[in-house]
Amino acid sequence: MDYKLYAVRVFVADWSRALRFYTETLGIPTTFRDDTMGWAQLATGEGQLALERLAPDDPEAPHLVGRFTGVSLEVPDIEAAYRTLIGRGVEFHAPPQKQPWGGVLAHFRDPDGNLLTLLGSSS
User: Fold this and answer.
1) β 39-42/48-53 pair status
2) Residue 1: partners with Cβ closer than 8 Å, 6 or more residues away
3) Which of 93, 94, 105, 122 is most buried per CB count within 10 Å?
4) Euclidean distance between CA atoms 43 and 41, whole angstroms
5) What is the SS3 assignment for 114?
6) How many structural domains is the chain composed of?
7) If you ran DSSP here, which 8-state letter would residue 44 be given?
8) Rounded Cα–Cα distance for residues 55 and 37 (Å)
9) pLDDT digits over 50-108, tens only?
10) For residue 79, what are the domain limits?
C-alpha cells in the first residue's frame, strides 16, 4: 500500500476565534472551509492541518480540545517567525531553543489550548 498523510485534525471549541487565529494571526491560508460543517483545511503543504469544530454537547469534546497533538509547523526562518508571531500576540512557552539533534523548536498554544510547535533548522 502507498500511504500519504492527508490531514492532521486539531479540535476547536470556538470556531470563529480558531479561524481568526490560524488564518490571520498565524497567516495560514485556507484551502477548504465549510462553516456549517465546522471544517477547514489549511495550506500547510502536502499534509494539511485541519480544524474541526466540536459540538458543545459532544461528550468527547473536553477530552479532545486542548490536548497535545504533536503538530510541528516547519518555517524557513524560525527567529523571524517567532518575532512576527510575538508581535501578533502569540504567547510562547520560551524563545526558540536548539535541540540536541540539531533542530530549533518553539512551543505555543492556540486559543483553545492546543499545543503547537514551530520547527526550524539551526543556523
Assistant:
1) antiparallel
2) none
3) 105
4) 7
5) coil
6) 1
7) -
8) 10
9) 999 988 888 988 888 888 888 999 999 999 999 999 999 999 999 999 999 999 999 99
10) 7-57+66-121
- 27 occurs within a structural domain: yes
Would you say 112 and 65 are in contact if contact means Cβ atoms under 8 Å apart? yes
**Residue 122 confidence (pLDDT):** 61
CATH of residue 35 = 3.10.180.10
Pick from 20, 15, 13: which is nearest to 90 by CA?
Answer: 20
Kindly report the pTM of this predicted structure: 0.88
- Assigned domain for 76 exists: yes
Residue 1 domain flag: no
From the list 110, 89, 85, the residue with the least C-alpha distance to 17 is 110
**Residue ranges with strand state E in the chain:** 7-12, 30-34, 39-42, 48-53, 68-74, 97-98, 103-109, 115-121
